[in-house]
Structures are given as structure tokens and as C-alpha cells.
Amino acid sequence: MALKAAEDFDVMLLAGLTWHRAGKNSWTASDRFAAYTISLEPDDRWYGQWERDGEKTAADWSCPTLETFAEYMVDNARRQNIDGMD
Predict the structure, then answer these.
(1) Which of 11, 27, 32, 79 could pair with 19 in a Cys bridge, judged by C-beta atoms 3.0 to 4.6 Å apart?
(2) pLDDT digits (tens, 9 = 90+) for 39-78
(3) Rounded to two decimals, what is the model's pTM?
């Protein structure tokens, strides 16, 4: 369903965020923690990055399932140390 949704809609709700189509196979969302970008690559896996305070962090994992990858990205961005503090 996620691949169909990724092709048929311009807005979707994943990981508690509203994602907006940014291209044929890419989506963006943001919250108070970061701005997120997810893209489907030719290997049919989702890759992405988040940006906080002008610093981009690439996800160190990819996934064939859009919903799972969105949850991973948002969770990791929210858990990322802010200014090196634990």
C-alpha cells in the first residue's frame, strides 16, 4: 500500500507527521525537531536525511517499507543529541 500511496497522493500521514510530495519519489515533512526528506531510490529502498539548525544528517539505514523508514527517521532525529548534550 505504501508504494501505491507514494504514487497516488500528494499528502500523507506517516510517523505522526504530514508528508508532502517533493518529487515523483520523494517526500518532505518537518516538526520542531527537524526537517525530513525521504526518497525512493532505484533499488526500491527508501533513503533519507534530516536537517536541524542547518546541519544535515543522512540516515545510516534504508528500508523497502515507507512506513517503517519514516518511523525510523523521525525517531532517530528526535533522539539525536542537541548540541552534544545527553
Answers:
(1) 27
(2) 999 999 999 999 999 999 999 999 999 999 999 999 988 8
(3) 0.81
